[in-house]
């Protein structure tokens, strides 16, 4: 690694000059009189979660032996220096949860050893550089919650080692490229909150290793294949809602025994939740529109069920009391009680409760709710 680390020392001192905020005074020892590097060369710079602010100095690109750079969860602004692309030994790059702006430097494609590339939750703009397709060792690519625009480049299909991919909550559009079908090792694919169009990408059906698939809130259309659940048998999370899918809900979704969270609300899918869903024992969260099969109440592990804005049919049976883990948004319930009460009183002003009396009633509702066991409350709801 060489004997002279003066280059690294100078690079770190210049980096410190770009730091205008150091609330925890962690860089106070970085000065001319102190030799920063006791070892040969700097191979890791871990400054994550240290409440630092300022800009990232281009001098960081002079740390030519750097393999790990973590500046996450700070308050760095400005742009990502092109010079970061000089770090050809870099394997881990994390600048997430900052206020970085501008475009993703194309020079980062020179960091050919990168395995983890995380720029999640910044203010990055522009398109996704096609040069990222050169980073063929990438296993983790997180670019979600930024302001990226345009289409996903076809070159991303070259990332055949990718395991976790997140472009969620950007302004991306167009079709999801077919090249994702080459992600044979992928575990998590998250693309929610964009403007993707076209049909459900057929290439996704080839990704049998997928455990987390989230394409919520896009502009996707068309039908889902009836064998959906048989082709993606390892899913734990499936979020398809807030799209424009048509046709029937695939009954084979009930064959995904590992499924824990399912969201298919606000789409144009027809039909009801199949009764066979009663055998999906690991299901904890369910968000949908439609009628409720009786078998659903056998899901003892269900912890959340969203029935809002529903046009349900069928009965809610007393068996719902068996789902002891399900939670209720208490504040919402009380707000609804107040809203309904006031609206009813508008039409009968002579019978309107005084404010003090209304308060007493609400307090009574709250006390009854908290002092009553949840299962008993559910049983009473079913009896009324």
Sequence stretches where pLDDT stays below 50 over 5 or more residues: 307-313, 328-352, 368-384
Tally the structural domains.
Answer: 2
Q: What is the CATH topology descriptor of the largest domain?
A: Leucine-rich repeat, LRR (right-handed beta-alpha superhelix)
Mean pLDDT value: 81
Count of individual beta strands? 20
The strand line-up of the biggest sheet is 2-4-6-7-8-10-12-14-16-18-19-20
The main pleated sheet reads as: 12 strands, parallel
Helix content: 10-25%
Number of helices: 5
| Secondary-structure-derived class | alpha/beta
Distance, first to last CA? 77 Å
- Beta-strand proportion: 15-25%
The CATH architecture category of the largest domain equals Alpha-Beta Horseshoe
* Computed CA radius of gyration, to the nearest angstrom: 27 Å
Give the CATH level 1 class of the largest domain. Alpha Beta
User: Can you write the helix and strand succession as a string?
Assistant: HEEEEEEEEEEEEEEEHEEEEEHHH
Q: What coarse outline follows from CA principal-axis ratios?
A: elongated
What do we call the CATH homologous superfamily of the largest domain? Ribonuclease Inhibitor
């Amino acid at each position: 690694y060489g004997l002279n680390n003066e280059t690294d020392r100078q690079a770190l001192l210049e980096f410190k000059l770009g730091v205008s905020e150091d609330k925890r005074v962690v860089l106070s020892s970085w000065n001319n009189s102190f030799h920063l590097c006791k070892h040969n060369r700097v191979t890791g710079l871990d400054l994550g979660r240290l409440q630092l602010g300022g800009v990232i100095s281009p001098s960081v690109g002079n740390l030519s032996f750097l393999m790990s750079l973590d500046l996450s969860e700070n308050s760095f602004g400005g742009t990502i220096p092109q010079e970061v692309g000089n770090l050809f030994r870099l394997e881990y790059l994390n600048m997430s949860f900052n206020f970085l702006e501008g475009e993703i430097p194309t020079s980062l494609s020179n960091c050919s050893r990168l395995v983890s590339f995380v720029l999640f939750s910044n203010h990055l703009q522009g398109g996704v550089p096609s040069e990222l397709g050169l980073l063929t060792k990438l296993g983790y690519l997180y670019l979600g919650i930024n302001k990226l625009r345009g289409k996903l480049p076809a070159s991303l299909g070259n990332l055949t080692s990718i395991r976790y991919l997140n472009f969620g909550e950007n302004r991306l559009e167009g079709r999801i490229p077919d090249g994702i079908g080459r992600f044979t090792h992928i575990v998590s694919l998250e693309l929610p909150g964009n403007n993707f169009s076209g049909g459900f990408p057929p290439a996704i059906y080839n990704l049998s290793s997928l455990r987390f698939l989230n394409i919520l809130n896009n502009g996707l259309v068309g039908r889902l294949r009836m064998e959906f659940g048989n082709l993606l048998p390892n899913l734990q999370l499936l979020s398809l809602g807030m799209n424009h899918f048509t046709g029937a809900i695939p009954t084979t979704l009930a064959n995904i025994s590992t499924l824990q969270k399912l969201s298919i609300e606000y789409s144009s899918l027809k039909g009801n939740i199949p009764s066979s869903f009663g055998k999906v024992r690991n299901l904890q969260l369910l968000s949908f529109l439609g009628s409720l099969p009786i078998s659903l109440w056998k899901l003892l592990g269900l912890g959340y069920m969203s029935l809002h804005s529903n046009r349900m049919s069928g009965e809610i049976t007393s068996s719902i009391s068996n789902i002891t883990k399900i939670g209720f948004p208490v504040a919402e319930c009380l707000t609804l009680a107040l809203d309904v009460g006031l609206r009813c009183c508008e039409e009968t002003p002579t019978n309107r409760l005084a404010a003090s009396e209304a308060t007493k009633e609400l307090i009574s509702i709250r006390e009854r709710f908290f002092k009553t066991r949840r299962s008993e409350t559910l049983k009473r709801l079913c009896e009324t």
